[in-house]
């Protein structure tokens, strides 16, 4: 009687295919993955704790560095959470400027991902091509904000710098450039036989699995789950766009399979969608102030008189990012909690990798566009040298007890 032999295979925490440390423990049968376990916790930076020792404006600077690629997404969610708790209104012009910055960043993030995905399947010509055309949007962001990443544009109640008349043609030229190269880029990414052969039927996440595992962003939409914070929880300029809808493979007449190829489809289509969103914002940019409160000292003084809690949600390039903040008559957040999209999508790796071939592991992992530093949680090292990973039940009990402590302190 034949018995299937299963072998262990460790990949990570450092590996040429990984841009950040994460460890995967596989059980393989021949060339097939029969089991997978994921170990995070190698880049935990305690940003949520550090933020409680910095004032509300300094925290924006800190949160931009949670992720360098989508560095406006965390400050966006944080500012919206503080504004929600304090009742601070964002002027219409500032909402539109925030939207423009966010969509420019989405374009550069998706192009960066496309290059990484091409590299993981050995298509380095495409890697160089996508990163070359990505330079145009980075140059635009640099002229707009002063930086290619970490833009320092947001403040609580608005933005720090205006979109001046001389910058509008720069953005328009950038949009024209991407419309010119979009057809060629789309053909390479979606029609090339090498890509289709490697990506179709690989790393499948079904619709039901996406729902059960709470997948977000392009990972969810590639499985047919039409879930997008910009539509479901309108904020910034998005409520003014009645034509806006979540992108799924159905938009090119393809039934969603939830594989790596479909995740590429969603990101390619979202490049064009971002161009349309930015054009709408430029054509309808309101006049008026760019912040409801001028000056960091005035903002902090107002927030020192506030007691309450707020939630901010934003559709980052990788999916929903959410921030929860508690304010309690202090110049610093009393409590802050960050949920990054990779923290949601990491669970989807298990069904994606189950049954995959060993050679497909790098592209399947890369297909959710992971940011490990965004998602990382801790592993405790005990005095005896053993490790103890905090499980979901224990983390939940810590969260409940912490919330009771914070509410007791705030009410007292």
* Tally of individual domains: 2
Task: Give the overall pLDDT as a whole number.
Answer: 89
CATH superfamily caption of the largest domain? Cytochrome-c3 Hydrogenase, chain B
Number of beta-strand segments:
10
Query: What's the CATH architecture name of the largest domain?
Result: Orthogonal Bundle
Shape: globular
Rounded to the nearest angstrom, the distance between the terminal CA atoms is 70 Å
CATH third-level topology of the largest domain = Cytochrome-c3 Hydrogenase, chain B
- Kindly report the spatial arrangement of strands forming the biggest sheet: 1-2-3
Q: How many alpha or pi helices?
A: 17
Biggest sheet statistics: 3 strands, antiparallel
Helix content: 40-55%
SS strand fraction: 5-15%
What does this structure look like?
This protein is 47% helix and 13% strand. It has a three-stranded antiparallel sheet, with no helix packed on it. Strands 6-7-8 form a three-stranded antiparallel sheet. By secondary structure, it is of the alpha+beta class. The chain has helices spanning 47-50, 56-63, 73-86, 92-120, 124-145, 168-191, 193-199, 207-212, 217-221, 229-232, 260-283, 296-303, 341-345, 349-353, 361-366, 372-375, 392-411; strands at 7-11, 23-29, 32-39, 154-155, 158-159, 307-316, 319-328, 335-339, 379-381, 387-389. The protein contains 17 helices and ten strands. The chain folds into two domains: 47-373, Cytochrome-c3 Hydrogenase, chain B, CATH 1.10.645; 378-412. Strand 9 and strand 10 form a beta hairpin. The mean pLDDT is 89. The termini are far apart.
């Amino acid at each position: 009687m034949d018995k299937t032999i299963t072998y262990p295979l460790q990949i990570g925490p450092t590996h040429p295919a990984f841009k950040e440390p994460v460890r995967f423990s596989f059980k393989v049968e021949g060339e097939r993955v029969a089991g997978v376990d994921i170990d995070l916790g190698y880049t935990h930076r305690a940003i949520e704790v550090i933020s409680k020792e910095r004032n509300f404006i300094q925290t924006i600077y800190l949160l931009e560095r949670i992720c360098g690629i989508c560095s406006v997404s965390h400050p966006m969610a944080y500012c919206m959470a503080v504004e929600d708790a304090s009742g601070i209104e964002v002027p219409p012009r500032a909402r539109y400027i925030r939207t423009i910055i966010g969509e420019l960043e989405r374009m550069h993030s998706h192009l960066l991902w496309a290059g990484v995905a091409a590299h993981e399947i050995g298509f380095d010509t495409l890697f160089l091509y996508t990163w070359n055309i990505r330079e145009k949007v980075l140059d635009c962001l640099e002229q707009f904000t002063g930086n290619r990443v970490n833009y320092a544009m947001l403040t609580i109640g608005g933005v720090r710098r205006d979109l001046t008349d001389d910058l509008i043609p720069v953005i328009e030229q950038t949009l024209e450039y991407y419309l010119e190269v979009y057809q060629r880029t789309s053909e390479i990414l979606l029609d090339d036989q090498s890509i289709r052969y490697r990506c179709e039927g690989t790393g499948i996440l079904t619709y039901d699995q996406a729902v059960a595992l709470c997948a977000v962003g392009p990972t969810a939409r590639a499985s047919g789950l039409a879930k997008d914070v910009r539509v479901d929880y309108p904020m910034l300029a998005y409520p003014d766009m009645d034509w806006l809808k979540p992108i799924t493979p159905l938009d090119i007449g393809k039934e969603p399979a939830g594989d790596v190829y479909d995740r590429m489809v969603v990101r390619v289509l979202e490049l064009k969608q971002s161009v349309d969103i930015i054009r709408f914002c430029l054509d309808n940019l309101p006049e008026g102030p760019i912040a409801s409160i001028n000056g960091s000292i005035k903002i902090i003084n107002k927030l020192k008189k506030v007691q309450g809690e707020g939630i901010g949600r934003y559709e980052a390039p990788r999916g929903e990012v959410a921030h929860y903040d508690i304010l309690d008559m202090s110049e610093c957040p009393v409590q802050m909690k960050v949920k990054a999209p990779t923290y949601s999508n990491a669970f989807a790796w298990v069904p994606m990798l189950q049954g995959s071939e060993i050679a497909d592991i790098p592209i399947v992992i890369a297909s959710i566009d992971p940011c490990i530093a965004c998602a990382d949680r801790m592993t405790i090292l005990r005095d005896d040298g053993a490790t103890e990973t905090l499980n979901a039940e224990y983390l939940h009990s810590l969260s409940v007890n912490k919330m009771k402590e914070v509410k007791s302190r705030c009410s007292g």
